Amino acid sequence: MQSPKTKLVACPQCGKAALWSPENPFRPFCSERCKLIDLGKWGSESYRIPVEKEDSEHQPKTIDEE
Hints:
alpha+beta
């Protein structure tokens, strides 16, 4: 039985319940496998933040352009 301070969270990789406590060395993941899959996605640059291109008139001028 879990103590009142322990909590279950969804594993960000597979969605299974993962124990959020010091007893789970892989938290927030449910297992080492899910943790390594996530690490591999970061390493292969699968996770990206989309960037919008700015208009040239909104970009600051450099010293040479003044």
